[in-house]
Amino acid sequence: MGVFSKFPRTFWVANTLELFERWAWYGFFMLFANYLTGSSDVGGLEFTQSQKGILMGVGTGILYFLPVLTGAIADRYGYKKVLALAFTIYTSAFILLPMFSTFTGVFLMYLYLALGAALFKPIISATVAKTTTNETASIGFGIYYMMVNIGAFFGPMVTLLFKGSSNLVFYVSAGIIALNFILLLFYKEPNRETVQQTSLARTFKEIFRNMFSIVKDLKFVIFLLIVAGFWTMYNQLFFTLPVFISQWIDTSVLYHFFERYIPFISTNYSPAPGVIDAEFVANFDALYIIIFQIIVSSIVMRMKPLKSMMSGFLVCSIGMALTLFSQNVLFTLVAILIFSLGEMAGSPKITEYIGRIAPHDKKALYMGYSFIPVFIGNVFAGIIAGVVYQNMSDKVIITRQFATDKGLVVPEGLSNNAYFDNVAQQLQLSHKELTDLLWQQYSPSDIWMVILAIGLGTTLLLYIYDRVIKVKGSKTR
Predict the structure, then answer these.
(1) Orientation angle between helical segments 67-77 and 103-130, nearest 10 degrees
(2) How far apart are CA 363 and CA 189, in angstroms?
(3) 272: which residues sit within 8 A by CB, 6+ positions away?
(4) DSSP string, 267-312
(5) Which site in 58, 404, 465, 476 is 20 to 30 Å from 153, CA atoms measured?
(6) Which parts of 97-240 fold into alpha helices (H)?
C-alpha cells in the first residue's frame, strides 16, 4: 500500500473519470456496428456495411486526430473547464444520437460525440503524467491502463442488458458519463504550462508548424505509417467482428453451457433462444486482457520494443484472422484469446518505442503525434469493415444475391431479418440450414485472408524497418 499512498487525490479522481468514460464509450461502441447495420425489426438502422465503414472509420479517425488541437485548448482554458465541456457534449450526444436515423444525421451526431471524446482524451493522460513521478510513473500508468480495460469490459456487459431497446443503450452511456460531473467537483487542476498569454490561433499555428517539422524525421514517419497497419487490423474487433458473429457464427454451444451453469448470462445476454449476443462474445478480448496483461507484460518487459511489436503484431494478425474463419463459437473464443495475447505484447510497446526514438527535447511533441497511426488505422479499418466486408461477407447482400440466383420472388419492404426468413421459408429450410448453405456456397469467411495479409504485411515491414535501423547502427531498437 506504500506506493499507492504516494499518489495525490487528483490522480485517483482522474483514473475514476477515465473508468466511467471508457465504460460509457465501449458500452455503446461495441454495440454500434450491429446497431448501424442490424435489421429494423430489432432496432437496427439497416445501413449498408459500406455506410457503417465510412461512419465508424472516418468518425473514429477524426476522434484520434483532434486531441492534438483539443490538448492545446485544455492547456489554454484549463483542464477542469474543458472536462466540464467534454462531459456536456458527451452526455447530450448520447441522448441525441438515437433520435437520428438517416446516414447524414447519425454521422453528424457521431462527429459531435467524437468531439466530446477528443476534448476528454488528452486531459486525463496529461493529468496522470503530471500527478506521477519517475518513481511512481510505471505503476501509475499501469493503473491507468487497468482502468481503461475494466471500463472496456464492464461497459458492454451493462449496456447489453438493455439491448432490447436501442435508445436505452445510449441513455445508459449518457448516465454513466453524467456521473463524471460529480467526480469533477473533487478534481483539482494539476500544474500546467501557462499559455494564456498566447492566442489560441497562434497556438494552433505553432501546432501545425510542429506537424510539418515532424515530417522531416523520415524514420519516425515511416514507423507511424507501418503501425497504422496494426490499427487497421486491430479495429476489426469493433468494426467487423460483432457483425460477423451476429451474421454467421453459431453460438448455441455457448448458450447451452451458460443455460446450464450460469443461467443469468443465457437469460440476459441472449437476443433469442439458443443465441448469445455477438458483442458478449467479442467482449472476451477485454476479459482476457484483465486476466493476462500482467503476465504478458512481465514476459515482454525485457524485450526490445521492435521485437515485442513484431511478435505481438504477428500473433495479433493470426488471432484476428481466425476469428473470421469458422462458424464454431468455441473456435472464435480461442482466436480472440490469441488476438488479445498479441495485442498485450505489441500495443503497449508502440508508445514505449516512440519515447525512445524521440529527441530528448521533443519527447512531448513526438508523443503527441503518436495518434497519427491510430487515425489512419481507423480510416482504413472502415474501408475493410465497409466496402470489403460488404462485397465479400455481408449476409444481407449474399442472401439477396442467392434469392436472385434461385429466381425467388420476395416481397418488397421487408426488414433484413424478415427477408432472410422469407427466403428460408420458400426453400423449406431452417434459419441455421440456410445460413450454413450460404456459408458453403459463398465463402464469407474468405475475408480472413484480407485481415491476415494486412497483419503479416505490417509485421514484415516492421522487420525490414528493424533491419535498416540495425544496419545504421541505431541504439534505439
Answers:
(1) 60
(2) 23
(3) none
(4) HHS-SBTTB--HHHHHTHHHHHHHHHHHHHHHHHTTS-HHHHHHHH
(5) 58
(6) 103-130, 137-159, 166-184, 200-215, 218-234, 236-239
Q: How far apart are CA 29 and CA 56, in angstroms?
A: 9
d(CA 473, CA 132): 34
Which residues face 328 on adjacent strands? 250
Instruction: Provide the terminal-to-terminal Cα distance of the chain, rounded to the nearest Å.
Output: 35
Q: Is 421 helix (H, G, I), strand (E, B) or coil?
A: helix
Q: What pTM did the predictor assign?
A: 0.92
* Residue 417 DSSP label: H
Give the C-alpha separation, 281 to 201, whole Å: 46
Amino acid letter at 385? A
pLDDT in tens, 329-384: 999 999 999 999 999 999 888 877 887 787 766 666 677 677 889 999 999 999 99
Number of H helices, E strands in the chain: 24, 0
All three cell numbers of 333, joined, read 473464443
Bridge partners, residue 275, by sequence: 272
CA–CA distance, 363 with 352 (Å, rounded to integer): 11
Q: Whole-angstrom Cα distance, residue 165 to residue 190? A: 41
